[in-house]
Write a structure and sequence with these properties.
Elements: H1 2-15, E1 19-23, H2 24-36, E2 43-51, E3 54-63, H3 78-90, E4 94-102, H4 111-119, E5 125-129, E6 135-140, E7 144-152
Parallel strand pairs: 1-3, 1-7, 4-5
Antiparallel strand pairs: 2-3, 2-4, 5-6, 6-7
The structure holds zinc ion.
Zinc ion (ZN) binds at residues 100, 102, 110, 113, 127.
């Protein structure tokens, strides 16, 4: 019996897809935020609910990029991070992702991004490229791997 259960468990684990789930209006909001920031990288905290290897975004918490070198890097101020976390707590949500944009390059994590992914734990990073206007999501496991972005249908009560 145990052997059988273990086999099931193993099969089940393989079936779980790592994905971050957003709806179209959230993606539109991030696109607009990126476009408004023009030559500078934009950033946001993605708040939601994590289940297994799925990160379901419920709210976007837009933030300012306070980095001294904002065209190629981004930093969220400690104050804004704190209010983002507070807002999440009030809504019973958690941080399920970090968003930032690359105004003039493709949506791949830079070396700096990889370093910060190491420091910022087990959550996906979404990058928007102003060059190709597409979104990609990554998570750091043993190495940085790309995960799926699932776009939910628009629902009235979502
Ligand atoms: Zn970057």
């Amino acid at each position: 019996m145990d052997g059988l259960n273990n086999n099931y468990r193993r099969v089940f684990r393989i079936v779980i897809v790592k994905e971050i789930i957003l709806n179209q209006s959230q993606l539109d909001m991030l696109t607009e935020h990126a476009i408004k920031s023009a030559q500078n990288e934009s950033c946001a905290m993605l708040l939601g609910i994590q289940k297994e290897e799925q990160w379901n975004v419920k709210e976007i918490f837009l933030t300012q990029n306070v980095d001294g070198n904002p065209e190629v890097e981004f930093t969220i101020s400690p104050e804004e991070l704190l209010s983002g976390y507070r807002h999440a707590e009030e809504k019973h949500l958690e941080l399920v992702g970090i968003f930032h944009s690359h105004p003039k390059s493709i949506a791949l994590p830079s070396n700096t991004d990889r370093e910060f992914m190491r420091l910022n734990g087990d959550i996906p990073w979404i990058i928007f490229s102003g060059l190709t206007t597409d979104f990609k999501a990554f998570i750091l496991k043993e190495d940085v791997e790309e995960i799926k972005i699932k776009i939910m249908e628009r629902h009235f009560f979502q």
